[in-house]
Input
Amino acid sequence: MATPQPDVETIRSPDGAIEVEVLPDAGARIHRLRVFGADLLSAPDDPAAHLADPFFSGAYVMAPWCNRIDPGPVRVGNRSVALVPNFPGGSAIHGQVYARRWDRTGPGSFRIRGGEDGWPWAYEAGLAVAVANRSVTIALTLANRSPDPMPGGLGLHPWFRRPVEVAIHGDSVFPSNADTPALPVPVAGPLDVRRIGALTPGVDATWTDLADPPVELKWPHLGLRATMHVDAPVVYIVAASVTQADAIAVEPQTHAPQGLRRLLAGEPGALAMVDPGATLRLVIQLAFRRDAD
Output
């Protein structure tokens, strides 16, 4: 019997310079981002392999929270959050929608409803991908479908293939995502990445006090550059260079790690409180150019 082929939606620019492949059955994950013929994301040859190891490939949506949260139970208002660990070290990481099946709602547009599984609010997450001649726009939404306010966060987690250089134009940083402090510190040493270059191995941190644009990327061997613009009520940039992937993660998010702890403790970088019927939005634009242009 033939192996079922994964559901793939491809979005292309009119001139064919940019091609994006999205997998609705694997978290509406971006499996491929091809620019001027070069694949920029680290991804397995078999798209179904994303589900076996969902955290270290492609580019996936994080909702209704990003990064790490300590597992519950903990009270938020009149509700109890009781998440279970899904990552080494005992964290509940990257939300609930990164490996679930999403529904198509139109060309390049996807939606998923969530809640339960320890998260006691109903919500709806959305993804819309649009491609122009030299840019990709990725719009994320998180809508509260519960009758009382919901803590929430959004983010995109792309793994960019090495060799790649990065600049993050942030003046302050939370130095560790695994053991994140309450307050950021001024950037210094290997965490001062305001000039473009290779990310130091082992770095896993979150930048704030960002300029516009917050991120630049460069692939010298391809003669290719990208500028990342991010539009959200509050923006943080996570970057990680880890041994598990031959790639680096550069992740725009709406809150800092341990966003639920931050909310309850009154610390900066907390999850947003999303009113009933309201929607949190995060829009990312990657604008590409070749050195020869």
